[in-house]
Design a protein that fits this description.
Oligomer: single chain
Function: Part of a binding-protein-dependent transport system for a sugar.
Bound molecules: beta-D-galactopyranose
InterPro entries: Bact_solute-bd_prot1, SBP
Structural class: alpha/beta
Keywords: Signal, Transport
Largest sheet: 6 strands, mixed
Main location: periplasm
CATH architecture of the largest domain: 3-Layer(aba) Sandwich
Number of helices: 19
Distance between the termini: 29 Å
Helix content: 40-55%
Subcellular location: Periplasm
């Protein structure tokens, strides 16, 4: 009782600035798309549902990556005030399905032919172990992108880096010229995302899977891990102490304004650039994170639908069908910077970066190189993922934490998980 009240209070402090006042005959959609680019994409959804009955109230919870939103969702569930719709990712879907609070979407999926239209990966992520749809997928984001300010790169006479040593050298050149080498948000997941990119860049898919997906203690305590941590520390020495207190999208504006050379991260960065009318690829171009060209590290946004008895079943189904429609999914992803989860959407209106993401996804899927993001809830159960992210962030920020101490902490997380 005491515990749940504490969580609820913490949650309220996130909610106050953004939530709308509850109305009769309305249903809530809880999400963490608060950056301008994300809001532009969300607008596609609110427009499409503008005349729905019940009306949809958007409940925004600040904090990219969704950690705050997940805390609020838990608090609302404990208080019995679940939203009708909640934005969710990967492993969290199973957790909510396991406690029986969310809807089975099989009837709608059958009527709308999800089996035919969705990529197999989208099916796998949004179905439970019994093969039932329990979530509706919306986006397929590529996480292993290096976003580059092209005028700055040319001014500094730097070739697009092809591997970690070249990326490091390029960042050193920028730093010596007084330019921020890598723009970075100060959230923990922003830093953990650098680590997963480095792991893949230095050691490839098998090691990534062993260390960050299977949490294999031998991989965690290996020379490969020590090499990755060494590179991670080099990166922190280059940028770490100068991380301004800012969300990821402010880091993107730094990049767009030519105040920083690079940003590493998912293609929601593209959505942000598009909302700010930045020329793609002339001003900002996308390159695969050096050393990961053949890979596609994925993250997928989905919606889950809570079992709500204040809205009639037919209205609920109409809203879910609308959200899964080809038109909405296309318009949403055009703005979001992601690629659609439906295979039947024509990409000719999409940006060159989105077309390259789609081609990279197809190729990586065929060669077994589409891999889940650890940082963004695609690989690990939520508790292990948060613990890993937190330890990696502390290591990045505190130079007195040794590689061995971090390795031991990661192994303890792995053992708690096994
Ligand atoms: C991710 C989410 C994306 C994006 C990002 C930053 O977790 O999948 O849609 O919005 O957070 O907020």
């Amino acid at each position: 009782m005491f515990k749940s009240k504490l969580i609820a209070l913490a949650a309220i402090s996130f909610l106050i600035p953004f939530s709308s006042v509850a109305k009769a005959q309305s249903a809530e959609l809880l999400h963490w798309w608060t950056a301008p680019g994300e809001q532009g994409a969300l607008h596609v959804i609110s427009q499409a549902l503008a005349s729905s009955n019940p009306t949809i109230d958007l409940i925004s919870v600040s904090g990219g990556g969704g950690d705050n939103a997940m805390t609020v969702l838990q608090a609302k569930a404990l208080a019995g005030t679940m939203p009708f719709i909640a934005q969710i990712e990967g492993a969290h879907i199973d957790a909510w399905d396991a406690i029986g609070l969310i809807q089975n979407l099989d009837t709608i999926a059958k009527r709308e032919n999800w089996d035919q239209s969705l990529y197999p990966l989208a099916k796998q992520i949004n179905q439970n172990d019994q093969g039932e749809y329990v979530a509706l997928p919306l986006t397929l984001h590529r996480m292993n992108w290096l976003w580059v300010n092209e005028p700055l790169r040319k001014q500094l006479n730097i070739a697009p880096p092809k591997n970690w040593p070249e990326l490091l050298a390029a960042m050193q050149t920028a730093k010596s010229a007084g330019i921020t080498p890598l723009s970075l948000g100060s959230d923990e997941w922003q830093v953990a995302l650098l680590f997963e990119n480095l792991t893949l860049s230095l050691h490839g898919k098998d090691f990534y899977q062993q260390a960050l997906v299977q949490l294999d203690p031998t991989a965690l305590n290996s020379d490969k891990m020590r090499q990755t941590l060494h590179a991670f520390r080099q990166l922190s020495q280059l940028v770490g102490r100068h991380i301004p207190h800012q969300p990821w999208n402010e880091a993107t504006s730094q990049l767009a304004k030519g105040e920083a050379l690079f940003q590493i991260g998912g293609d929601w960065i593209l959505g942000e650039l598009l909302a700010a009318d930045v020329a793609i690829p002339d001003t900002i171009n996308c390159y695969a994170m050096p050393g990961t060209e053949q890979h596609f590290v994925y993250n997928m946004d989905s919606f889950i639908f809570f079992k709500i008895n204040t809205i009639d079943k037919k209205s609920q189904a109409q809203i879910i069908e609308q959200l899964s429609s080809r038109t909405l999914q296309k318009q949403f992803n055009l703005k979001k910077g992601a690629i659609p989860v439906r295979q039947d959407i024509d990409l000719s209106d999409f940006t060159s970066c989105q077309k390259r993401a789609a081609a990279a996804f197809t190729k990586a899927s065929e060669s077994g190189l589409a891999i889940p993001s650890m940082t963004d809830s695609m690989a690990l159960p939520p508790v292990a993922q948060r613990a890993m992210t937190n330890e990696l962030f502390r290591f990045f920020m505190q130079s007195n934490i040794s590689e061995q101490v971090l390795i031991e902490r990661l192994i303890s997380i792995a053992q708690a998980e096994i």
